[in-house]
């Protein structure tokens, strides 16, 4: 779940303020918050998917919710329908297009939120602790949806923010943060080794 070329770059070292570092980090990348120091350049359109899907999925049906964000574009009705269908298909929710939102599980709502981001033709998915409120089956469904969404080479990249080390195996690369700073970055093997050694230090 990593971009072929870096979608974000920093011109100056920056540090998040005290609090929920992971949320602050992803919120700054999404443009929801401004960094207190440094400069960030974004060269790809990106969309932010919240930890709690109920904060993002607001329309009465699946199809209507995915189409909701497309109102800001000058699209024909056929173009909207095409984007919605492709996005729902990418996350395995096409057959649920007419379902009322309140009948969905938490994981299904997360997949609808991801579909909404994909429908807007984003190139970077910013995913904040997506599996926090989900049971095991829904966790797997969301992970599969994200993997499928980034399957095409150079199409969409995903930046997955998580505290769950067991999700590391699904990524192409990883960065580990402490106190708002990246202290380790590399491929999965290198980051996993670093974290195992770190656990040994604390034991």
UniProtKB/TrEMBL annotation:
Q: Which SUPFAM superfamilies match?
A: P-loop containing nucleoside triphosphate hydrolases
* InterPro entries linked: ABC_transporter-like_ATP-bd, ABC_transporter-like_CS, ABC_transpr_CbiO/EcfA_su, Molybdenum_import_ModC, P-loop_NTPase
MF terms from GO for this chain are: ATP binding; ATP hydrolysis activity
Q: Which Pfam families match?
A: ABC_tran
**Could you confirm whether the keyword DNA repair appears in this record?**
no
Show the GO cellular component annotation of the record: chloroplast envelope; membrane
Ranges where the ABC transporter domain occurs: 3-203
Keyword annotations for this protein, in alphabetical order, are: Transport
Judging by the UniProt lineage, the source's domain of life is Eukaryota
Please verify whether the record's keywords include Transport: yes
Gene3D superfamilies to which the protein is assigned, alphabetical: P-loop containing nucleotide triphosphate hydrolases (3.40.50.300)
> Which CDD domains does the UniProt entry name for this protein?
ABC_cobalt_CbiO_domain1
Name its GO BP terms in alphabetical order. transmembrane transport
What PANTHER family does the record point to? ABC TRANSPORTER I FAMILY MEMBER 10
Q: What is this protein called?
A: ABC transporter I family member 10 isoform X2
Native source organism of the sequence = Phoenix dactylifera (Date palm)
